[in-house]
Design a protein that fits this description.
single chain; 173 residues; mainly alpha; 6 helices; 0% strand
Length: 173
């Protein structure tokens, strides 16, 4: 299964715009379902103020989802800009965490993570909207590829450990 997931990740990296479009449509449908669930929850709520707020939130989820599903290319552009902004915030938080942990061993890894997040954010935002054609699809593809690779490694380690345990059991019996 790890090889299938890794191969899918490579495919997603090779076709980043298709990956981004499918991802955007998936996010859109997810938001539509969340909007419907939030609406049902709102209708069952007690108190007029809470009901109104929950209905407005449910409509916001639903309308956003509908826009993403029916206008996925524009949705990819919007999600790409959002991703770049989130990465800037993440870089700032990681930098603060790194310096808060500075005397502790390993604090530099937080700073390295912050630098990487900031570099990706700059690449995305500086190239926006053209970065929409590669950013989300490539990042999702890399994530899927890394999931596949980690599954392959974990499976190999488990099989080796099981084989070692069997050999140990045979040697002591």
């Amino acid at each position: 299964m790890g090889f299938v997931i890794a191969a899918l990740g490579i495919f997603m990296i090779a076709y980043p715009m298709a990956t981004a479009t499918v991802t955007t449509i998936f996010v859109g449908w997810s938001l539509i379902f969340v909007g419907v669930a939030q609406f049902v929850f709102a209708v069952q709520s007690k108190g007029a103020g809470h009901v109104f707020f929950k209905i407005v939130v449910s409509l916001l989820y639903g309308v956003t989802g509908i826009v993403l599903v029916f206008f996925p290319i524009a949705g990819v552009a919007a999600l790409t800009l959002t991703l770049g902004s989130v990465l800037i915030v993440q870089a700032a938080l990681l930098t603060a965490t790194a310096f808060a942990l500075r005397p502790a061993a390993g604090w530099g890894w937080f700073l390295a993570d912050a630098v990487a997040a900031l570099a990706v954010a700059i690449l995305i935002i500086a190239g926006w909207p053209s970065s929409s054609s590669w950013a989300i699809g490539t990042l999702v593809g890399v994530s899927v590829l890394m999931t596949g690779i980690s599954r392959i490694v974990i499976t190999t380690v488990i099989r080796r450990s099981a084989g070692n345990l069997q050999n140990m059991a045979r040697g002591t019996a």
